[in-house]
Amino acid sequence: MEKILLTLLSLWAAFSLSAQESGLARHNLLYAGQSKKQRMFIIKDGQVNWTYYNQQGRGEISDAVLMTDGNILIAHQYGIAEIKPDQTAAWTYEAPEGTEIHTLQPIGKEHVLFVQNGHPAKVVVMAIPSCQIVQEFEVPASEGVHGQFRNCRLSSRGTLLLAHMGMGYVAEYSEQGRELCRWELPGAWSVSE
Predict the structure, then answer these.
(1) CA 5 to chain centre
(2) pTM, full prediction
(3) CB burial class (10 A; 0-12, 13-18, 19+) of residue 192?
(4) Beta-ladder partners of 173
(5) Which of 24, 41, 169, 174 is spaced 20 to 30 Å from 85 by Cα?
(6) pLDDT tens-digit map of 138-156
């Protein structure tokens, strides 16, 4: 009986250690949620290491990218911003009236790509921190602004993959805005390679 108990205790200890190693503690991550409050958290070694809460912010954080310098790019429905570790904004860009921005991606350290929901809907490349538009092209979009787009990502080929959530497909675009491919995917929210 004692041998069985020791074996069970050994198995339990091994399982417990394995569970800890496969839990949250083994992943460092950025969490930015889809809520009506602009909140973000950085988790390191299973613990909340940094918290951001913008009480004056309008709109949910729909997309966030942790940069190598520790800054975080966010798309928050009514604009985009780069938030520094001290919780101040390096720069901000407000979405024009009647438009929304739910996705963005850095292009190196000097540009950011985003999709501006609206009429017309646009893919925009902007220099940062000056917020100067350097390139844009229009993309087909559904009627309702809020449900048009949620996620886009650059591919390894230099093309843009864009989830047309409101129109039910994912498309691949050239740098000039020409549609290269289309996949019918009703309700597509996100796309990556």
Answers:
(1) 49
(2) 0.84
(3) exposed
(4) 160, 179
(5) 24
(6) 999 999 999 999 999 999 9
